[in-house]
Specification:
Helix content is 28%, strand content 25%. By secondary structure, it is α+β, with helices and mostly antiparallel strands. Strand 5 and strand 6 form a beta hairpin.
């Protein structure tokens, strides 16, 4: 989508563009991207480390293991239909989706950008943790702490003070990082030993908040 001379845009075109943007940028829409590691998928158990020990004295040969299991409801696959429903609900509360076929004015497009930037800055998060390399953009269905938008869209006139307010709101939404959090990962430990005639294992577990870092992400 592009804004060019003599091109008339309706709100539905803008909404469709935002949905396509979210789908193209997020790694958890309809399915996890192939490069998303197990350590960022809710409910997945993954091996953190293992170490083998040779038999010595009274100690039999054994291997110690450390595992992690992700316990975070934001680390899930999100259907595009859910994204569409949440976006439309968000925009409807701001009087935008009710006029999907209406041509967009300059003030209207600034109001749309401001609201959408608030939505994206809250819903799109950059995910990483200490158990894997790389950073991944996720869509977070649980995030709802949106930045407020103060532009009066009921008046078609666009004064200089309103333009300043509009740009201030836009920058504020783009710089939002209040949705950063550290997902909880359950750590478990196991020890297995074996001999020529038998094998045995034991395990223990604990829960801790491990370092998966979320950074607010926004692109229009």
């Amino acid at each position: 989508m592009a804004i060019v001379q003599n091109n008339m845009i309706v709100y539905q075109e803008l909404i469709d563009y935002v949905l396509n943007l979210i789908k193209s940028k997020c790694c958890n829409i309809d399915a996890f991207a192939s490069n998303v590691p197990a350590s960022l998928k809710n409910g997945t158990k993954f091996t953190i480390a293992s170490k083998e020990f040779a038999a010595s004295g009274y100690m039999t040969a054994h291997t110690n293991y450390a595992y992690g299991t992700v316990n975070d409801s934001s680390m899930v696959v999100v259907p595009l239909s859910t994204v569409k429903s949440q976006l439309e609900s968000f925009l409807s509360a701001r009087g935008i989706t009710t006029k999907a076929s209406e041509k967009v004015s300059y003030k209207g497009i600034m109001n749309f950008y401001n609201n959408v930037s608030s939505f994206l800055a809250t819903k799109m998060v950059l995910v990483s943790n200490s158990f894997s390399s790389g950073k991944f953009i996720f869509y977070d269905t649980n995030a709802t702490a949106f930045e407020s938008v103060s532009l009066d869209k009921s008046d078609i006139n666009f004064t200089s003070s309103q333009i300043q307010t509009c740009l201030t709101d836009l920058v504020k939404s783009m710089g939002s990082t209040k949705n950063a959090h550290y997902p909880t990962t359950t750590l478990s430990y196991a020890c297995s030993s074996s001999s020529s005639s038998s094998s045995s294992s034991s395990s223990s577990s604990s829960s801790s908040s491990c370092s998966s870092v979320f950074i607010a992400y926004m692109e229009i």
